[in-house]
Amino acid sequence: MRITFVKKILANGEPCGKCADVESRLDRDGYRDRIDRIVIADERDPMSEGMRIAADFGVSRAPFLLVEEPSKTSVYDIYFKFVNEVMKAKSSEAESARDLLHQNPDLDYI
User: Fold this and answer.
1) Which domains does the chain have, with CATH numbers?
2) Positive or negative CA dihedral for 53, 55, 56, 59?
3) What is the pLDDT of residues 36-58, one digit of tens each?
């Protein structure tokens, strides 16, 4: 899984306030280290990488998170939905795997 955080620079050159808020939540909630890339959608440059990604996925607001998995790519423009569906789900899977290994000492990591 690869996670890209797309944040916006407004037409006046100022950073997006909501983007800064989500970025601080990622830090506060301990998810920042699970973000693989941060991309800028610069309203002054329609060819900026973030603007192209937004156009490719039909996203009209920022910030958003792009979650790429082998079988699908998902876009999240609501932070709490992203946390619940991606971060907490993956944490739960990891905990289950650790529990399984702990309960079965004959198993080993691959």
Assistant:
1) 2-78 (3.40.30.10)
2) positive
3) 999 999 999 999 999 999 999 99
